[in-house]
Design brief:
alpha+beta; 2 domains; 10-stranded mixed sheet; 12 strands; 33% helix
């Protein structure tokens, strides 16, 4: 992330996104979303109504002086600030993201805090950063005591927003939160942005490694990963709802009616790359090929709609005929 408009000179960008359903019985209007995300009095909430409702909070900073998680156990001290923000989509979905630029080299001694505050969202290593070991450690390792834990920072922000008085804590259906942990390493000159890996785990953790050109803003990388996390959550949640509904079982009408929350609250949210930087939007094509996000989504949506249509036909057929 650049300070005062200057280009960032980072070795990698890292972050973690927490995604879940906003705990409220109704979709929040833009006015309430703005109040929900007003994390700082000196900066406004950014709200977009096209192509769908989308709001981003001001960035809040967390100072850190700790070790970086590294593959192989190399001890790397890092000092700086972590940027975090919250995002609400369509007044229904809540995400919290913590992210930072990690520089390739830094001073051997800690600088005054004023220096780090002047470079928001930037973390400096003590000496030279072992880039590959740091990328692997940030991506795959669980933070140990004394190590940087971006997930904990994102979780605290999510909890802060989720406790807001505007939320009645009555979600329209049960769902689980997901975690997406990501690292973006710098690409070689002339290389296009790419997704190096995307993994899904059973415990709700997803990991993504990106390769991005020098000068790519951390905010843009975070927006891309928020978009991936949102659509992964939608896909995962719809799969679970269909599994729980037991479509095709003897209790056909009950199974179909149990899917109504998906129709009311989820199906209209599928809109990949709606707010992603144009230079990064083509990366979604990688996920369309393997594992095929939109193809799977469309198949499940069609199944839900077919079942609803069959249920409506059955109700009309079984309705008593009026006599004249």
């Amino acid at each position: 992330m650049a300070a005062r408009g200057e280009p960032a000179a980072s070795a990698l960008i890292c972050g973690e996104v927490r995604t879940g359903l906003l705990q409220t019985s109704r979709s929040l209007p833009a006015r309430d979303v703005s109040a929900l995300l007003r994390l700082r009095a000196d900066e406004r909430v950014l709200i977009s109504e096209r192509p769908h409702g989308y709001a981003v909070s001001p960035v809040v900073l967390t100072g850190v002086d700790c070790r970086l998680p590294t593959a192989g156990g190399a001890r790397v001290r890092a000092v700086g600030t972590i940027a975090a923000r919250a995002v609400v989509t369509e007044g229904r979905m809540l995400q919290a993201t913590a992210f930072a630029d990690v520089l390739g080299t830094g001073p051997d001694v800690r600088r005054p805090w004023g220096h780090y505050l002047a470079h928001p969202g930037v973390v400096e290593p003590a000496g030279k950063l072992p880039e590959r070991a740091a990328a692997d450690g940030l991506l795959t390792g669980a933070a140990r005591p004394g190590e940087l834990d971006l997930g904990a920072i994102a979780e605290r922000l999510l909890a802060r927003v989720a406790r807001h008085r505007l939320l009645d804590q009555r979600a329209p259906f049960k769902s689980r939160r997901t975690r997406l942990r990501w690292v973006a390493v710098r690409s070689l000159d002339g290389e296009e942005p790419s997704i190096e890996s995307f993994t899904l785990a059973e415990d709700g953790l997803r990991t993504v490694e990106l390769r991005l050109p020098e000068g790519m803003r951390a905010e843009d990388a975070a927006t891309l990963c928020e978009d991936l996390a949102l659509h992964d959550w939608l896909l995962t949640t719809l799969v679970r709802m269909i599994e729980r509904s037991r479509l095709g079982s003897a209790d056909g009408p009950g199974a179909v009616l149990s899917l109504r929350p998906a129709v009311d609250h989820l199906l209209h949210l599928w809109m990949p790359t709606a707010h992603v930087d144009r230079s990064l939007a083509p990366l979604w094509e990688v996920l369309e090929r393997d594992p095929g996000f939109t193809r799977q989504w469309q198949t499940m949506v069609q199944r839900v709609r077919d079942q609803l249509a069959l249920h409506a036909i059955t109700l009309r057929r079984d309705a008593p005929t009026a006599r004249t």
